[in-house]
Protein: Glutathione S-transferase
Organism: Sandaracinus amylolyticus
Amino acid sequence: MKLYDAAMPGTRGARVRWILEELGIPYDVKTLDLRKDAKQPEYLEIHPHGRVPAFEIEGEAIIESAAICMQLADLHADRGLAPKLGTPERARWYQWIVYAPATLDGPIVERLFHTALLPPDKRRPELVERADATWKTAAPFLTKTLSKQDWLVGDAFTAADVVVGYDVALAANMGMLEGHPALQAYLGRLSSRPAFVKAYEGG
Amino acid sequence: MKLYDAAMPGTRGARVRWILEELGIPYDVKTLDLRKDAKQPEYLEIHPHGRVPAFEIEGEAIIESAAICMQLADLHADRGLAPKLGTPERARWYQWIVYAPATLDGPIVERLFHTALLPPDKRRPELVERADATWKTAAPFLTKTLSKQDWLVGDAFTAADVVVGYDVALAANMGMLEGHPALQAYLGRLSSRPAFVKAYEGG
């Protein structure tokens, strides 16, 4: 199993490293320079958009971090990171796992770029405003669930917490958890997991 | 089972209607006015962002069209719209089902708004450019698979074709399939399915 990631903090490769650490699966990492290696024909065969992560499993490459997390959770179903098929918990799991890339990632990643990563003359304040407007609804929505239970789906930590937790951790780095104590407490639970620490701080 | 949708063409509720028609499941539709009903507290309890679709199943509401499609496909696994857990086909299914909301929906829906739905003085050409740049990579990526097989995952039509097919149909309405014969042929296969016709024309 090989993870293609970039030498840059905050990539969505963190989701894949995190779930692999939760599952205790050994893996290789190929670290790319996003401006050079990731635009070479060889890598574009693996990820047509020249982004990270991509994940090779039995010689086949899959893209989309949320998809990779679902597949890994299913492959190790005994570890409890994926609720059983056809249950209401599975529906809720799908909802949160899709909510992250569909609704959270765009605004949060755009906010990061347009407040910090891009040079000041390339930053567009209207995209930051749009991100903040989404977060203004998303934060109470997450809070509604996370103020009555520790994890997003049922009573146990699942892959949904990895996928959404990535966004919560990124939001925290931008000060977006201020005034959201339930989300701060959730991040506290997430970041005290050994797998989180290894994924974010290990090599 | 109740689908919350809007009286507007092109909503992502089409994905849910389509898969319900494929599965032959009867359902109720509650049609909302996006500017009024969808912003009422009662609906915001169901969908915090005041968008459509939302789907009520056994009294529990789920949001995110791709998530709803996965759950419905699992609940009727005998109909073959979801590959078996833990197989390479299931990984590919997840990839395409996440690719749609993560990578395709944003640009395609933004393009629709900023070329047609918004009044001319609110349209932002740079968002159309960004959409076109994504499509320039996405169209060959889809073509790579769809020029060698009829459907996205393995040899059979699955929920991935519903989720991604929605974007292909929307792209076609904006003339974006020109110069992409494999995608035109794919849309031909999709739109000749009785469930597609019922979802898009019935109702």
In short: DSSP finds eight helices and four strands in chain A. The first strand of chain A starts at residue 2 and ends at 6. The helical segments of chain A are 13-23, 41-44, 65-75, 88-117, 125-146, 159-173, 181-191, 194-201.
